[in-house]
Fold:
Amino acid sequence: MAFNQEAYKELELIVGKRYVTQDIAERECYRSIMAESSAHSGPFDGETPIPGAVILPGSTEEVQAIVKVCNKYDIHFKACTTFWSVMGFVGDEDSLQIDMKRMKKMEFHERDQYVIVEPYCIGAVVQVEAMKRGFNVNMAGVGCSSSTLAGASSWVAFGPSSCFMGVASENFLAVEWVLPNGEILRTGSLGSGGDWFCGEGPGPSTRAILRGTQGTAGSFGVCTRLAVRLHPWPGPTVLPSYGTIPAYKLVPQWNIKTYTLNFPDWDGYANTINYLSQNQDIAYLGHRQYNMWGRYIKLAMIKMLLDPDGQLADVPKYMEDPFIKEQTEKCRIDLQVVIVGMTKRDMEWKEKAIDEILRRVNGWKNEFMLQPEVQDWVALYLLRLGHKNLNYTLCSSYEGSGGLSNNVFVTSQVMEEYHQLREEFDKTHNGLAATGGDSEMGALSTLGGGGITGYEFFQWFDRHDRSSIDDCRDFIQNYSQKLCDKYGFGTDMGNWNNTARHPDTGYYYTQEEQNEMFAGAPQPYLFTYQFLIKKAFNPKDLCGSYYRTLDPACLKK
Ligand SMILES: Cc1cc2nc3c(=O)[nH]c(=O)nc-3n(C[C@H](O)[C@H](O)[C@H](O)COP(=O)(O)OP(=O)(O)OC[C@H]3O[C@@H](n4cnc5c(N)ncnc54)[C@H](O)[C@@H]3O)c2cc1C
Structure:
């Protein structure tokens, strides 16, 4: 089948010929291989289907008109903005890909401490503008080249700053949203004729329907504008840097300090996370970041990255350096924190608080990471999150697995077992980078008086090598998921999106297929509830299967 030509003519009238295309070469750019971390669906080796047409709207009115055409001709559509995730790509060949990159205005409201963003305002730009005004924004862990709106409106978006600034769902204020049926919904204070300062309005909260905790991943129409919270930033209005590519560093600031905390055991680690997340003023940012390269090579990797001529081939040489060897051993159980002083006294207090926590848990600050040049590099890395390319360094791709994000006192006790599991796996398989078992990376916590942590074990694989992909899948399905089952941690992170797309074709699942999948689920009412919501707002089921639904008629007795 081909894209409906009557509909195409109407789309041309809405945006003009320049901003809609059926050109095969341009459409081909809107596909994604699924062997990518962003899929979080296991590293399968297919590609998402090619869209029938691609359109770039320039305003909310144009988005609404486009969605109405889709409803008129029963065309599936999917909005996507910065495309870091496979979730935003279409699910069949006749679909319309709505690329939001033309909408990129933002509007600051300093007095009420929020900013209204359009889809293509990326984190880097929003943060730069916020800092000029003495504010900062929660940066999703996917990094500063991702869309602030896409994360905040549609997918998880926690990150290093979430311990201080909250996750996306906590930063989501009023919103303007074109629903799948073409109606425009304005929520919270905006919907009551007010301003954008509040996400909740009179009556039932539509915020929970549009967003919830996880987000609806483009399955609920198109978000066109969103207000997100601004948070205090006492640092410089422009971040001064020095050094050269690829290792820019922050010029030292009296009120910004970066430490890598080390612990003798996992109890010390868990207790520190508890202290820091119960006292959310201490850490401005908190992340277990560099462990993604694995417990044996992480410091050698940093050494290599700080050398402008450094290459991966140099890593073994750095690992032999006695100082790096010793410090790597001491850095097995670690956590990076950034403290930011609002005043001189506040800074002194935070320094003391960190020292006191370390004293209580018998921890220490890692000496390698205390070197000024390393500290300055880490500060810019964590504040800006502009190095997400490094998530792909070792062998072109990774899959986050495990997802030990529940109670840290429970999950931290499983770390060594998980570590052993990977080491055992490596004895009989060679498709995954042997980084030392523990390559667990993730954010300190969310808000909420010690909210959840968010960790993922990096499984590095070569996405161009069939056997490497197979090994990654094998590890997630047959080892990692089983460990999660054993401890009741639920779905392994590598399997989060398994029920959203066919692994081989990238097609979305039909309602009949979803009924089959969810009828026997332990808590099927979640899916029947979502079915009823979909029926009300998306009766033609036009936006794909990332919103899981179960027809109540199919409930098993
Ligand atoms: C290297 C890497 C690291 C990551 N680390 C983290 C992390 O630490 N924390 C975390 O939370 N996630 C992380 N992720 C997952 C990440 O959050 C998702 O990949 C992210 O949503 C994609 O970001 P994006 O901003 O490019 O959005 P897009 O890929 O553009 O879109 C994401 C979803 O939102 C929908 N969407 C986009 N724009 C709109 C719109 N205007 N209206 C309606 N729906 C829309 C899309 O359909 C899609 O489903 C990571 C991913 C990668 C690749």
Notes: The longest helix spans residues 466-487. Residues 37-38, 78-85, 87-88, 100, 119, 140-142, 146-147, 149-151, 153-159, 217-218, 222-223, 388, 391 surround flavin-adenine dinucleotide (CB under 6 Å). DSSP finds 21 helices and 20 strands in the chain.
